[in-house]
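Running this now, will post back.
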Amino acid sequence: MDASVAAVVGAAIGSLGGLGGAWLSVLGQGRQQRRQREAERERWRDEMRRESYNACIAGAKQLSAAWWKFSDCAWNEHSTPEDWRAAFADAHDAWTQFSTAVAAVTVAGPKPVADAADELRSAMYDLEVEGMRWFSAALHEESGRLTAHDQRFKRVAEAKREPDHAFQHAARVALGTELP
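Update: finished.
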């Protein structure tokens, strides 16, 4: 083989090696970019979930606090129907915020957290309904000091604790801060 043929063969092999290396480099870059996009998407998803879970927890606490304020107002012998209406309006506003937060959780997922949020919503709805019944009865009786309503209210307030804890547990599992 003379030198010129060897040079051409060597150049061809070198070119093929260069092309192969460039091709491998492009493939590696593509994989790295895919991994980076996946990592960014996971960070975005986790942040969205964290925000929706926090809003749901805060909304549940605010709704509960609003109904306890109504209870305190109803039992205050110096309170008036206008005081009850104001406390009722605050509780209803808190329900709206809580309900919106639960909807965000059901979108953010995953399913076990969405299911737990729905159970919490159901328990909080029972509290909302009992509070509305108490409010209506107080207006009718012209007194908020209604023992039967107070007792039912306390029962449903106690019953919401388990779904509240279950939601928080499911949220921690989904965020990877607690084992299942």
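DSSP finds five helices and no strands in the chain. More later if anyone needs it.
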